[in-house]
Design brief:
This protein is of the alpha/beta class. The protein has helices at residues 44-55, 75-91, 104-114, 126-145, and strands at residues 7-12, 16-22, 29-36, 60-65, 95-100, 151-152. It is 36% helix and 21% strand. InterPro entries: RNaseH-like_sf (IPR012337), YqgF (IPR005227), YqgF/RNaseH-like_dom (IPR006641), YqgF/RNaseH-like_dom_sf (IPR037027).
Length: 166
Amino acid sequence: MPSQGRRVGVDVGSVRVGVAESDPDGILATPVTTLARDESPEHADLAALAALVRDRDATCVYVGLPLQLSGVSGESARQARAYAAELAALVAPVRVRLVDERLTSVASHRLLHDSGRAERTHRAVVDQVAAVLILKSALEAERATGSQPGELVSTGGRKPRTKGRA
């Protein structure tokens, strides 16, 4: 069975990053925040996410991998892999795993619509809802298989970035 402890779910978008967390027993997945993507050299979103992982003593981070319906990796999947690799270097030794997130954005919008939320207000929370769905799916797979699902992201021997170092 996977180790106890909080797990973090991450939905990486081109503009925003949705974040969710589990309880220590891995039963519930709840929304935490939405971070603005920062493509500058500071990568403030990655730094904030790494701090959140540390502050919550997370034992694993599940990053959604947006494969195409056919299962093929496209540009979005490449970007998610790159983001996950950067995050893995920052939060090591906490494991970062990529999990299939096909259709989570569609499901997130549907959940928000079904809850009566106006479509114009979806943008503020849809990434968090997607992160919850990613994490919920991973937690269900943990319970079903007794192991952590997805593809383990290697840090590639990279050291975490620090200020003043590129």
